[in-house]
Structure formats: C-alpha cells, structure tokens
Amino acid sequence: MNSNSSVTIAPLESTQVTQTHSIYLDAEKYLPVNFQLTDRPWSISLNILCSFRMSDYLDGKFALLLEYQDLRGKHRLPVDILELSFENALLFSNLVEIPVRGELSDICLKLTGVPKDIDVETELLHIHLEESRSYSDSQPIRKVL
Q1: DSSP class of residue 39?
Q2: pTM
Q3: Which residues are registered as beta bridge partners of 72?
Q4: Does an H or E element contain 142, and which?
Q5: pLDDT in tens, 26-56
C-alpha cells in the first residue's frame, strides 16, 4: 500500500438524496486523566461501538465518521464502513487513533449514506479511551503524566 494514499468514502451509487445523522461528544470526557494540553503532537485512541436502528430495510453503503477540530483545523476519520443488503440495523465498531496538535474540540460521530426519508435512532453508543495506546510527542501518555 502506498504510504501517501488516503481513504476516500465513495458516494452512494444511486441518485438518492441522503442525510447525515450526527452525535456530538464532549471532548473533555475522552482525554486521559491529568493530561496537560500541549502544542506538540499527541494522540488518543478511542474504542468505538455504535449501533443504529432505521425505520425501513435498506441496501447500500453506510459509513460512520469521526470529525474533530484541533490547532491545525477540522479533520474527518473513518470509524467503519458497512455494505448492507436488506437490513434495518447498523453496527459499527473500531479502534480509532486520533492525531492531535493543541486543543481537541468539536468531536462528532456522523452516520452517512442513509436516505433522507428514513428515520434513524441511535440504539447504543460506547466509547472507551485506550490510555495504553495514547501518546504525547511519541511517548506513551502514561509515562508523560
């Protein structure tokens, strides 16, 4: 794999108008205990599990994205991508490393690919900070604290 490649979320193959279902998160909840903000690079790893129920059965591609803002601007990372065949439930799960510089703010999970006329309900949201996989200036955060 080319190290300069990036992940691109392809639009739905149909011409259907889609919606984005957003879940806004409190950034403070996902920082390691006693962590001091720095302008140096740091990262946190979040174990994310999220399920949704839709008002109808659907086919197609759906993506859960994590958006956040730091000193460098706004960023979007893929959490998980699903391709469904006649389903009304979505289950996303992944360990996501978030590279940050400066203050972490405006964290949001976004579900994409759902047609506008479909109601979406968040059934489960579990987010766990993996401190053993979080770093400050290339050093494990546990050692930096």
Answers
A1: S
A2: 0.80
A3: none
A4: helix 141-144
A5: 988 877 766 666 777 888 899 999 999 999 9
